[in-house]
Fold:
Amino acid sequence: MSVLDVMIYPHPILRQKLEDIETIDEDLKKLSEDMADTMYESRGVGLAANQINSTKRIIVFDPEADAEKRNYTVLINPHIIEKEGSQISKEEGCLSLPEIRSDVKRYAKVKVKALNLDGEEIEMEGTDLVGIILQHEIDHLNGTVFIDRLSSLKKKFYHKKLVKQAN
Structure:
């Protein structure tokens, strides 16, 4: 088990848009296991690679956050290909933005195309918590953090608070 350090906002890698992965190898599989270990240890439901200072376009998630079952999903090069339904607003938090929680508008349903660890192309639909996790983690891979989706007033407030905490 390898628990990695979680990058805290405003670390610059959290603003980096990550490029697709070309090769799925043992190092990538090990990275996904380490990401899952980190997610469970941090009591999160999802983790994107740039949150652990990697430039690989990969996420792991487990909506049950059950470290004993370890029923997590790994998505390589995930991209949202469809968004449906009215935007819902649910309170979100983020391992890279500790102690910050706020309502974020997200689509009710998304469809994602990605590769699994065997290199097979898959599509998955996400609604409710899974849909929110997919949108949140794919945002990370695109250099977006959840406070970017808030009103400009809330964004400025949280940005100031987080920068102050980092110093």
